[in-house]
Design a protein that fits this description.
Order of helices and strands: EHEEEHHEEEHHHHHHEHEEEEEHEH
Largest sheet: 4 strands, parallel
Structural class: alpha/beta
Strand content: 15-25%
Radius of gyration: 22 Å
Oligomer: single chain
Length: about 350
């Protein structure tokens, strides 16, 4: 990764969501003085919280995958995720319901999931699931160490033996076709391919490399923090404050002050000027381009990924047939993705 010339002693992080707080913790661990500015009244960003009518509701993500990444951020300042947040593993990870009335519990334990697939669709599909799981594990190992957990400054850095390994695994074919090599049951194929929508791509058009997302929530495990998902950014903010970060709530950035190709200060909408040696922007991409005053030239115009309409309900009833996550797969699979992504 390229390093900027000159001092980087004081870094301002714009945004106190999960990425901004993780960045702040890693910078603090590297010996930097860190100021976090957040326009909201507290941490969280997309992982927010609302209290209404006696109910406390998460307004963003509803489960946690790959908690070791959060733990690495805590560890940077000599802390730990498990000291700050109590996690509960979800069993099942989620429940899939289909238009024909059938339902499948998705387990991250291999033996439990193989037995569930056998119950749901028979022994041939159970054997296919076993092979699929092995393929997902290999795909993850190749992608994580070289492509996901790596910073790139040039496309030439992609030229690595792992790129050939990814191609050999079929990563550059189509996702739905690759999943279909393991599972012929259409319902099961949907369970292991819908995750491409997390990246804004329909399974029919996504590369098979996107199956690594299915690995994260069908193999690696799914957790839920005690107190809700907002407990995680709150704990990260507390750890950052304990490590010396200056956390500024209600501080909206209006401009970046630049000189000689470097950001010298962050200006807030209140008129305050916050001097710094470097800035990290974790806000939305259009907002970041606005602060930078320019957008990079691209051969094709960027498109926004799909949004969602979310209904939060407070109730004193329970529904035993619903899991923590219950996904309803309707009958109009392809048409639904066309409506969402085109």
């Amino acid at each position: 990764m390229k390093r900027v010339p000159g001092p980087t002693d004081h870094v301002v992080v714009v945004g106190a969501g999960l990425s901004g707080l993780a960045c702040a913790l890693h910078l603090l661990g590297a010996g930097r003085r860190v100021t976090v500015v957040e326009r909201d009244t507290g941490p969280g960003g997309r992982s927010g919280r609302v209290r209404l009518g006696g109910y406390t509701l998460d307004t963003g993500p509803t489960v946690l995958t790959m908690p070791h990444l959060a733990d690495e951020a805590f560890a940077a300042v000599g802390d730990s995720l498990h000291r700050r947040v109590e996690l509960t593993a979800l069993h099942p990870a989620y429940r899939a319901c289909f238009a024909d009335g059938s339902a499948l519990d998705v387990h991250t334990d291999g033996e439990a999931m193989e037995a569930e697939v056998r119950r749901f669709a028979g022994p041939v599909q159970a054997a296919g699931y076993r092979d699929l799981r092995r393929w997902l594990e290999r795909l993850y190992r190749v992608q994580m160490r070289r492509f996901i957990d790596t910073n790139f400054d040039s496309p030439l850095q992609l030229l690595h033996p792992d790129l050939a390994r990814l191609a050999a695994l079929g990563g550059f074919g189509r996702l739905d076709g690759r999943i279909g090599r393991f599972l012929s049951d259409e319902r099961l194929r949907r369970v292991f391919s819908f995750q491409a929508l997390y990246a804004g791509v329909a399974p029919a058009r996504a590369l098979a490399a996107y199956a690594v997302i299915a690995y994260m929530d069908t193999v690696a495990g799914v957790w839920f923090p005690k107190g809700g998902m907002h407990a995680l950014p709150r704990a990260m903010a507390d750890a950052a404050a304990d490590a010396g970060a200056d956390l500024r709530w209600g501080a909206e950035v209006s401009a970046l002050e630049r000189s000689a190709g470097r950001v010298r200060a962050v200006r807030l909408s209140s008129g305050e000027r916050v001097p710094c040696d470097a800035v990290v922007l974790t806000c939305e991409l259009p907002a970041a381009y606005g602060l930078l005053g320019r957008a990079p030239r691209r051969p094709a115009r960027l498109r926004h990924s799909p949004s969602a309409v979310i209904l939060h309900a407070g109730t004193d009833r329970t529904w035993p047939h619903l899991a923590h996550h219950t996904l309803s797969f309707g009958a109009a699979w392809e048409r639904t993705f066309d409506e969402l992504t085109r």
